[in-house]
Q: What sequence folds into this?
């Protein structure tokens, strides 16, 4: 009886041990994939962090490039503005140079004052001295014209004593004054230059 109980107890102990060992094995087997899965997640997280770091670095590089591009753009705009200013100055200088050339040409085409006066005196003696006294205000046929452009009014007509009025009277004579024998504008100007010296 005792022997049967002992065998039974040993059997039960053996079964229990087998159950315990089997349990430990199952637990161990269950833990193995969990640990491997956790490691995979950690590796993925690490890769994600690395990728995020790379993305941030790329973003920083892009910002730097954009800043550099903005500075280059500003520099280019400044250079373009300077070029436009220089072009405007060059155009102004060209315009001034043309004006000087034109003024020089015009001045070179004009005869000197003393030449105009001399020619005017010759014309006066030829066409005017028979009726007008250049050295006195005393009348001949017409009034004396000494200082004719230094007074306020022209004799006879009463117009203002100006070169334009003398020119007008020579083109459209007043009262008995004859038409001026087809004198050119240049010759009339020379006569007026001479009258201004009286």
A:
């Amino acid at each position: 009886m005792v022997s049967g109980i002992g065998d039974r107890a040993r059997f039960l102990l053996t079964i229990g041990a087998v159950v315990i060992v089997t349990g430990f094995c199952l637990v161990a087997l269950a833990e193995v994939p969990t640990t491997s899965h956790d490691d995979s997640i950690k590796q993925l997280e690490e890769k994600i962090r690395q990728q995020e770091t790379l993305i941030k670095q790329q973003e920083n590089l892009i910002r730097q490039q954009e800043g550099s591009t903005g500075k280059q753009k500003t520099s280019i705009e400044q250079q373009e503005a300077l070029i436009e200013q220089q072009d405007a100055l060059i155009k102004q200088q060209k315009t001034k140079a043309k004006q000087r050339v034109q003024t020089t040409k015009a001045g070179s085409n004009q005869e000197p004052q003393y030449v105009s006066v001399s020619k005017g005196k010759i014309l006066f003696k030829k066409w005017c001295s028979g009726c007008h006294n250049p050295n006195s205000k005393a009348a001949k046929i017409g009034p004396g014209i000494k200082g004719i452009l230094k007074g306020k009014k022209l004799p006879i007509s009463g117009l203002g004593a100006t070169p334009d009025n003398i020119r007008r009277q020579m083109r459209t004579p007043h009262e008995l004054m004859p038409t001026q024998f087809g004198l050119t504008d240049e010759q009339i100007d020379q006569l007026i230059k001479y009258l201004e010296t009286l």
